[in-house]
Amino acid sequence: MTGPLEQAGPEMGQNLEARTQLDVYTWYSPYVHRVAWVLKLKGIDYEFVEENLKDPNKRSPLLLNCNPVYRKIPVLIHHGKPIVESLFIIEYIDDTWKDNPILPTDPYERAMARFWASFIDERLLEGSKRVLSVKGDQLKMETKQVSDAMEVLEGMLEGKKFFGGEKIGFLDIAFGWIAIWLGAIEEAVGVEFFNRRKLPLLETWKDKFKEFHVVKDSLYPTEKLVRFFTKYRHSQLKLAAKK
Amino acid sequence: MAKSDVKVKVLGTWSSPFVMRARIALNIKSVNYEFLQERLWEGKSELLLKSNPVHRKVPVLIHGDKSICESLIIVQYINEVWSFAPSILPSDPHERATSRFWAPYLDEKWFPSLRTIGVAQGEDARKAAIAQVEEGLLLLEEAFGKCSKGKPFFGGDQIGYLDIAFGCFLGWLRVTEKMSGMKLLSISKTPSLLKWADRFCSDIAVKDVMPETEKLAEFAKMIMAKMRGAAPPK
């Protein structure tokens, strides 16, 4: 992987044409990692550009042009055209590079994959972010919602090695962040979502997923994530106290 | 075709734009279906609770023994099962991604703002909602130019995914215009969308499922009265 590119300038235009694609990246974002895993799985050469997300005024002209509605990452740029929203980017990649399909081929299974990916993003991903920002009764409520969603996942793994069946598929990629981030969130907040005894299938899946070659290379030390989440939680609680 | 032997049902309500999406998609593919109307104010049917236990919302598409939920997932499913022409999604992957992109914006930001206009508490909230809706329409006017490439619909010559995703809200948009006395779509700001809206509503796949503005306005008044008067249903 190459390092971050310099400021977007006239050379960028040439780079976009010369290279096949560019990925906009921030180290902690699960949305971005998903896309990176899929690109690696398909053996697609890519380059990433780090965005400064802390200051909305410092977002690059490239990002603002590519994603004027949400101004969020990741953005994939291919043949000079932007694609946004991580799950849509993955579908785009699947539509464009047809080897090693990520999504199932059967229409009903595709519908189920899309449904569960969006459900888990809403309940679990957004829910675990909320856990980072609250305390007291609200924390209890958000933690319970996260745990309930995890029980759903445990049920989905019944009789399967991965969510995709024998091989890693769309849902494994969509849920992959769970294997890496959830533990760090638990540590930063001091709650428990993952109970080995209650969720044995999910626990086994987590270990297998982290061993998967494209994931292993992108793993950050848990301590770094814990530090990041702890800092984030501290600033969020401080903000809430001011209101 | 063997698929026509398997029963297709749509669980929904006549007033829901999300339900309309599923019905328009089935109409485009000329698939016969049974429309099972839910009376949501009286409580949710057993069939709804059984076929959509996670969200308990309409629409639900029941195809044989399978249930598919979430309107746009249903539209994509319909497009993939009845995969003959016309295709609802573009064949080009980038155009496909662009069509998909607008849907969360419409569902999570734009339509909720539209609904807020009628029920906003206070002038500031109302103005903010109107501003959000108008901003969205300007973005969509621009998107129409890029996606349609001079043709009648976002999808080109025929109604496509983004036409369905956005067009389903036209009934409620017209009700909002009627009840607030203001024009959201206009010749001056959104000329392409204004013409597109008429074309969409008169399309053969749409006209029988798009509710009449009058009927929808009456329904809206009834809901607002119920919300003000009655206790919220559990």
From TrEMBL, chain A:
InterPro entries in the record = Glutathione-S-Trfase_C-like, Glutathione-S-Trfase_C_sf, Glutathione_S-Trfase, Glutathione_S-Trfase_N, GST_C, GST_C_Tau, Omega/Tau-like, Thioredoxin-like_sf
| UniProt enzyme class | transferase
Which residues belong to any copy of the GST N-terminal domain?
Answer: 19-101
Question: What biological process terms from GO does the record include?
Answer: glutathione metabolic process; toxin catabolic process
Might you report a single GO cellular component term?
Answer: cytosol
Extract the GO molecular function terms from the UniProt entry.
glutathione transferase activity
Record-listed E.C. numbers: 2.5.1.18
Give the main location.
Answer: cytoplasm
Q: Where in the cell is it found?
A: Cytoplasm, Cytosol
Cross-referenced Gene3D superfamilies, in alphabetical order? 1.20.1050.10, Glutaredoxin
Catalyzes what? Answer: RX + glutathione = an S-substituted glutathione + a halide anion + H(+)
Q: Does the keyword Ion transport apply?
A: no
Q: Does the keyword Transferase apply?
A: yes
Query: Ranges for the GST C-terminal domain?
Result: 106-232
Q: Which domain of life is it from?
A: Eukaryota
Keywords carried by this UniProt record: Detoxification, Transferase
The UniProt family comment states:
Belongs to the GST superfamily. Tau family.
Q: What is this protein called?
A: glutathione transferase
Species this chain originates from: Durio zibethinus (Durian)
* Protein's gene: LOC111294701
UniProtKB/TrEMBL annotation, chain B:
Which species?
Durio zibethinus
Record has Ubl conjugation as a keyword: no
What Pfam family does this protein match (any one)?
GST_N
Task: Enumerate the UniProt keywords alphabetically.
Answer: Cytoplasm, Detoxification, Transferase
Q: Name one GO biological process term.
A: toxin catabolic process
Domain named GST N-terminal is located at: 6-86
Q: Does the keyword Cytoplasm apply?
A: yes
Record-stated family? Belongs to the GST superfamily. Tau family.
Gene3D superfamilies attached here? 1.20.1050.10, Glutaredoxin
Question: Broadest EC class?
Answer: transferase
Output the superkingdom of the source species: Eukaryota
Give the function comment from the record.
Is involved in the conjugation of reduced glutathione to a wide number of exogenous and endogenous hydrophobic electrophiles.
The name under which this protein is listed is: Glutathione S-transferase
